[in-house]
Amino acid sequence: MGMRFTVLSSGSTGNALVVATDEGKVLIDAGLSAKKIDQLLKEKDMAASELDAILVTHEHADHIKGLGAVARKYDLPVYANEKTWEELNKHIGEIADDKRCVMETGEVRNFGSLQVESYGISHDAAEPVGYCFYHEDQKLSLATDLGYMSSKVKEKIQDSDALILESNHDIEMLRMGKYPWNIKRRILSDLGHLSNEAAGIGLVDIMTSRTKRVYLAHLSRDHNMMDLARLTVNSVVEERLAADDHRARLMDTYYDRATEWDRLDEE
């Protein structure tokens, strides 16, 4: 069996992703309670005790809420870069020294047959990263919590078989929403989050004939809707691609339930 993944939860209330091969299984972020992560894994016929490691994108609460508890309960190593560790130390409680693993930005690590590479992104955190996952000839990329999609990010995530891409907000819903203007300005900035339109524009640049599925992720519950995100991204893509250009299938993610296992060796 090839590489497979499930987005356990995605959104401003909590984020967690599992990527697995037969010989390697990792959890990326633990932004839910340990109890909830256990429950979601069981629903996907997997136990947290099967995990080899937890990888952290950055230190914001919606990505690390259950990190310490899960790591301690299952005696799992936690991987993050040095600057992120400096922030994690303030929030996740005690982690044994031999479980505190530094994976600097740009570094590649192997977990069984699963290879993982981190890359830098633009977000208001200490040193946030995205990840690319490789197994045999398959590639999955995670690109969320980024204020804009730089040329370096596009280069890293291009030619992915599947992509988990931020589509955080509808710009007009955000502008008309209840948040204070300083929060709105942060979200709209280059250190904030990708809008639906920005996700579509970025997708046009990185989508190739290899790209099968794109999961729209990290949607705001206050300033977005799944149908609107999908419609906007699709409209942007259709405006910019020729009729015979390849189009990936747009997929949903959820804040309250996991996606089905996606097996990259299946069409």
Low-confidence stretches are none
Number of helical elements? 9
Spatial order of the strands forming the largest sheet: 6-5-4-3-2-1-14
Strand content: 15-25%
Describe the structure.
It is built from 9 helices and 14 strands. It is α/β, with parallel strands linked by helices and 267 residues long. The protein has a 7-stranded mixed sheet. Strand 7 and strand 8 form a beta hairpin. The longest helix has 15 residues. The radius of gyration is 17 Å and the shape is globular. The two termini are 14 Å apart. The model has no long low-confidence stretch (mean pLDDT 96).
Give the secondary structure arrangement, pairings included.
Layout: E1 4-9, E2 16-20, E3 25-28, H1 34-43, E4 53-55, H2 61-64, H3 67-74, E5 78-80, H4 82-88, E6 100-102, E7 108-111, E8 114-120, E9 129-135, E10 138-143, H5 151-157, E11 162-166, H6 171-176, H7 181-188, H8 196-206, E12 213-217, H9 226-240, E13 249-251, E14 262-263
Parallel strand pairs: 3-4, 4-5, 5-6, 10-11, 11-12, 12-13
Antiparallel strand pairs: 1-2, 1-14, 2-3, 7-8, 8-9, 9-10
